[in-house]
From TrEMBL:
Topology relative to the membrane: Multi-pass membrane protein
Protein name (Swiss-Prot/TrEMBL): Carbohydrate ABC transporter permease
Taxonomy of the source species: Bacteria, Bacillati, Actinomycetota, Actinomycetes, Propionibacteriales
Transmembrane among keywords: yes
SUPFAM superfamilies registered for this protein in UniProt: MetI-like (SSF161098)
Transmembrane segments: 12-32, 71-97, 109-131, 143-163, 184-209, 243-263
Originating species: Kribbella yunnanensis
ABC transmembrane type-1 domain mapped to chain residues: 72-264
Family according to the record: Belongs to the binding-protein-dependent transport system permease family.
Length: 278
């Protein structure tokens, strides 16, 4: 039986490896292209570098009106604000839905779930008008403030599912010890929500760092650009004469995402597994 399974297992692993190489080819090609001269990038689809051009990274770093460090810092500000906002607001909203009783609870929870299916393009126009009247255009506020209001329903739902798995006996024991609702949330529920909070942090980081549409709409001053918008401007500014520099900066922009995923992979898997989301 083992002899029969070995060739089958080997074939499955070879098929998986081949599929992984096909999926990774565009990424590997981009990394290789960042090290090639511009006139060879689209002429050679292979992955061998004949003429190594490290200076593509140096040229790309200073190709726009601001050094690329500025765009990385802008993205970092937006990402950190979004993470903080989601962790605070979504955890509080999830605790209310999972543990508190209030009028219209089921209705509001259903509306919250329905908002997950609402495309961002439906609300972008009224949001833009609102933020424009508030004088927030060309600032980071439209990208951060909504996160403080628990607008990411996916994370609220994820945390609700996690909290429902925490025994209510812990709440009762904390009540007997003199804790109120705030004390139960801060001292009992929140410390046990670390996997869900870590999952929220990782997803928020990746989605916000890679977001292009929202940042393109609200940020108009090149000094305020984040990394995705800067890469778009990079193409506009350098045209087709500096593709190597553009790919070099694309590789730089992917490094934080890879690090976030690799460092938080264990928490990501644990957080999703313990919330019942399949």
């Amino acid at each position: 039986m083992r002899t029969d399974l070995r060739p089958r297992t080997l074939l499955i692993h070879l098929a998986l490896i081949a599929t992984a190489l096909v999926m990774l080819y565009p990424l590997i090609w981009m990394i290789v292209s960042s090290l090639r001269p511009g006139n060879e990038i689209f002429r050679d689809p292979g992955l061998l570098v004949k003429d190594l051009r490290i200076e593509n990274y140096r040229a790309g770093w200073n190709a726009l009106t601001e050094p690329f460090t500025r765009y990385l810092l802008n993205s970092a500000v937006v990402v950190l604000g979004s993470i903080l906002g989601n962790l605070v607001s979504c955890s509080m909203a999830a605790y209310a839905f999972a543990r508190l009783e209030f009028a219209g609870k089921k209705m509001w929870f259903a509306i919250m779930l329905l908002s997950i299916m609402l495309p961002i393009h439906v609300v972008i126009v009224p949001q833009y008008i609102l933020f424009s009247h508030a004088g927030w255009i060309n600032t980071f506020l439209p990208l951060i403030v909504p996160k403080l209001l628990a607008t990411d329903a996916f994370f609220v739902f994820l945390m609700v599912q996690f909290i429902r798995g925490i025994p209510r006996e812990l709440d009762e024991a904390a009540t007997i010890d003199g804790c109120g609702r705030a004390g139960i949330f801060l001292r009992v529920i929140l410390p046990l929500m670390v996997p869900a909070l870590a999952t929220t942090t990782i997803f928020t980081f990746i989605w916000t760092w890679n977001d292009f549409f929202g940042q393109l709409i609200y940020l108009t001053d090149p000094h305020m650009y984040t990394v995705p918008v800067a890469l778009r401007s990079f193409v506009d500014a350098t045209s087709s004469s500096s593709w190597g520099s553009m790919f070099a900066m694309s590789v730089v922009s992917l490094v934080p995402v890879f690090l976030a995923f690799l460092l938080g992979q264990r928490f990501l898997v644990k957080g999703i597994a313990t919330t019942g989301i399949k």
